[in-house]
Give the backbone structure.
Amino acid sequence: MLMPEMRYEIDTEDRVAPGRVLLLTQEPGLVVGTYRPGHASEILCEQLNSVCRHIFRHGLWAQRWGADEGTEPSEHALLKVRFEIRPADAFPKDLVCLPQERPGEFVWLIREHHMSQQACDETNEHLRRAVKAGLWVQRWEERDDV
């Protein structure tokens, strides 16, 4: 398994397809989620990137590049990953995202007004397919309480 990097950014080159707000690009070792302007804030992308760097550098998640994202999701897959938009009062002052992880589940809590519902839905659509197809693996049992 290759230790991946996941990066989030705002589209500055008009690359996101019409009608969509998220463009995903992948190559071995790197996945980039590019959001149409107005659908995710710069500070959200910065904070997501910071947490993702920690997760992947410490080996808490790994990517299986041989897995097929087109595979129909397994009904027996236990892992759940999703973004949820929450009210601002659910967050400490300077945070716009809070990761919550436990065995079999990882939830990104996103402060309202920092991500559109369409961006949240498109991100969750990708995560559901990718995780259930086995592209992403949570390595909870191997962690060192990082």
